[in-house]
Amino acid sequence: MRNVDWPDPPAVGTEPRTPDEAFDALYAFTAPSLVRQAYLLTGRRVISQKSVERAFHLAWARWPEVAVDRDPAGWLRAAAYEYAMSPWHQLRSRRERPDPVAREQEGPEGRALRETLLSLPVSYRRTLLLYDGLGLDLPETAAETEASTPATANRLLHAREAVAAQLPELTDTQLLQQRLGALIRTVTPPPIAAAPAIRSGCERRARFWTRAAIAFTVLIVGATGFTLATAPTQYQPPLSPGERVGGVPGTGGPPRLSKQDMMLRDKLRRAPATGPHRLVPQPL
Asked: What are 40-85's pLDDT values in tens digits?
């Protein structure tokens, strides 16, 4: 790894002993530089702020894992870059223009380099910033971008060519590295919350999702119990749907009774239960 002028880490022997103090020290050491990097990658102050805060939220939620990591700053950088360069944010960036440039200390040369950096593809932009801006070597850059070493080298060469096409004086690799490193240190970062606010926000989010998970579990258990209580105890085959039948004759039956038939029916009903001995037909 090349030597880059970065702030010195906390001295040995003064490391915080509690998790809160360790997290706050890591936040104070890495957050200002990390938010500058995210701002150079996206050109959006809001996205860069959210990406850094989300990375530290994840770090605090997984602090036992991050605390023993051999490179906690690299872990945070990878998390912030992934969120800042997500496809959803890239889709929004295509529809919107970058944030207007404020009066910053970067100067005309730095502003031109930043605009050129934003014009590069996402993979080229990230590779160039990691290798020429932060001083990572090629295998580390390939590991952080989740690409092979030849692919990372190819991206780096194409990114340098694209920058040199717009800024011919940056054909010199050393000059490009110097300006890019100076740009990371001098660009005005967006404001970020304090470390205690990050920790408390992470804890509130964890409590919210825990309660939501419990409520969802209770809902599933209740729905399952209601289903078991109301479900049939035996199999009931479904009724076949009715079909229209053709070729059947119309409804038939005996003809309607005439007046004489009705008189005979009434006479039979008035007779004794055993009926008359003989019914003699009468002439009409």
From this structure: 888 888 888 889 999 999 999 888 888 888 889 899 999 999 888 8
Burial 6-22 (b: 16+ CB within 10 A, else e): eeeeeeeeeeeeeeeeb
- Provide the residue type at 221 as one letter: V
Q: What share of the chain is helix, strand, coil (3-state, %, to 5)?
A: 65, 0, 35
The DSSP element (H or E) to which 187 belongs, if any, is none
DSSP 171: G
Instruction: Quote the crossing angle between the two packed helices 72-84 and 45-61, to the nearest 10°.
Output: 130
Is residue 101 a contact partner of residue 132, using CB atoms and an 8 Å limit? no
pTM, entire model = 0.65
Contact assessment for residue 92 and residue 55, using Cβ atoms and an 8 Å cutoff: no
Using only the alpha carbons of the chain, give its radius of gyration.
42
